[in-house]
Design brief:
32% of the residues lie in helices and 30% in strands. It has 7 helices and 10 strands.
Length: 232
């Protein structure tokens, strides 16, 4: 009971940040790790699994253009086969399975004084947007702003093949662990209504813009607010 209460408090804090953010309508990222539709379907199923409500898969199928344009026999075939397939996928879905996300962003010039990079896009109002069957899900990485600063010793940056004296485009890969989904009414984030999933950040990797080189995998110094404050 106490853990559930704490979760509600954390979600309330996140929503408070989102509601007061002036840039929120624009600060969402596109997940490029997988084909969008496949990932969106998974996230939508995950949401229902987290809230403990089995979706109406028949209604899902009947809402697709493929079903609407099919003949009577094809429609029956789709219902019989796809409902069973979706039910199997839903049963097999593990809510403790980490979610890998990849998106494009930028890192600051390397600080020779503080020995690290700053990633401005990791703001408190960041979320990942997914749409499936006309429903929007916001995947919110909890405390993502604590990971804006990456500390990298000077000896290690010698292996990074880019001009670190300037701002560089990179690919950021984040691994999230889903923790909680809100089963209440959807809320407006920007101009759209979203159902919410709160997730914990468990790993972050910096890759080159073309994904050919791993720049850094390791611990951020999220606890060192003084360095973060230098950039705020």
């Amino acid at each position: 009971m106490r853990m559930k209460y704490i979760t509600y408090i954390l979600l309330a804090m996140v929503l408070a940040i989102l509601a007061t953010s002036t840039s929120f309508a624009y600060n969402y990222m596109s997940d490029e790790e997988n084909k969008y539709k496949l990932k969106s379907k998974y996230i939508y199923m995950l949401y229902h699994k987290l809230i403990g409500k089995k979706p109406d898969f028949r209604t899902w199928i009947e809402g697709t253009d493929e079903y609407k344009n099919a003949g009577r026999l094809k429609k029956l075939e789709m219902i019989n086969e796809q409902v069973a397939e979706m039910e199997d996928d839903f049963i097999a879905l593990d809510v403790k399975e980490p979610i890998d996300i990849s998106f494009k962003t930028e890192i600051s010039p390397y600080s020779t004084k503080n020995h690290g990079f700053f990633i401005d896009s990791l703001q408190p109002d960041l979320f990942f947007s997914y749409e499936y069957m006309g429903k929007n899900i916001a995947l919110i990485p909890k405390n993502i702003e604590n990971y804006q600063w990456f500390s990298i010793p000077p000896v290690d940056i010698e292996e990074i093949d880019m001009d670190l004296s300037k701002t560089n485009k990179i690919t950021l890969r984040i691994t999230l662990m889903p923790k909680y989904a809100d089963d209440g009414d959807p809320i407006y984030l920007g101009r759209k209504k979203y159902w919410l999933i709160l997730a914990k950040v468990i790993n972050i990797e910096l890759w080159s813009d073309d994904n050919s080189q791993l720049l850094w995998r390791g611990k951020t110094i999220a606890e060192d607010n003084e360095l973060l404050d230098l950039y705020k």
